[in-house]
Amino acid sequence: MYFAINDDKVPGTIVYRRDMDGSTGLEFLGKIFFLKDGILLSQLRRISGVDGSTLQNWVKRGWIPNTTNKLYSMDMFARIIIINMLRDTMQLSKISFLLSYINGTPGDKTDDIIPESKLYDYICKITDSMLGDESYNGERLRSLIESKIEQGDLNPAIPDAKERLVSALEVIVTSRYAAIIKAHSDELFDKLPGSDQR
C-alpha cells in the first residue's frame, strides 16, 4: 500500500525537520547535544513534547534510567524519543520489551547490542528510505535493515546481536511507519467539515 506521505517532524519529537535543516537520527542528536553532555528536563520536554509526569512514570517503571546531575544524556534522550515515536501504535509494555530485547537493562551499557543513539539513527534512516517508495514489503524491509546495520556498531559480546537487532528493527520500523500513516489519517480526518464538533 502506498500513500505518498512524508514525515515532516523529526521522529519522536515535535520539532519540524525544516527547522533542523532536514536532520534526523545522529545528525539531529548531534545538533541537540552540540558542546553539551546532557540536556535538562525542560529542554527535553520542549523537543519531545513528552510531559514531566509521563517521564517520571517511565523512570518509575524502569523504562528509562535516572538522570545524572539532572541531565539527560544523548542515549537517554534517544531512548525517550524512540518510546515516544512508537507509543501511538504500540503498547508501552511491548516497546519496553523491544528495547530490553535489544539493550537489556536501561542504564547498563554492558548488555547493550548497540547504543540507543545509534538505534535511533537506524530507525530514522530505514524509515526515511521507505517513505516515498511504494515497493516495500516484508522481504525488502528486512533486506533494507540488514544493509543499514554496520557490524562495527554491534557489541561482539552479545550472541546473535545482528539477528536480534534486525528482528527488533522490523517490528519498530513497521510500527513507526504505521504511526506515520495514522498521523496522516488523523490529518485527513481533521479536514472533514464538522470534524471539529466531535
Could you explain how this protein is built, in words?
This protein is 54% helix and 0% strand. The chain has helices at 25-32, 41-48, 52-60, 74-86, 92-103, 116-130, 138-148, 161-190. The protein is built from eight helices and no strands. The protein has 198 residues and is an all-alpha fold.
Q: What is the secondary structure topology, with strand pairs?
A:
Layout: H1 25-32, H2 41-48, H3 52-60, H4 74-86, H5 92-103, H6 116-130, H7 138-148, H8 161-190
Helix pairs in contact: 1-6, 4-6, 5-8, 6-7, 6-8, 7-8
Biggest pleated-sheet summary: none
What is the C-alpha radius of gyration, as a whole number of Å? 17 Å
Low-confidence region ranges: none
Overall pLDDT metric: 90
Instruction: Specify the overall morphology.
Output: globular
Number of structural units classed as domains: 1
Number of helices: 8
Structural class: mainly alpha
Provide the helix percentage.
40-55%
Number of strands: 0
| Helix and strand pattern | HHHHHHHH
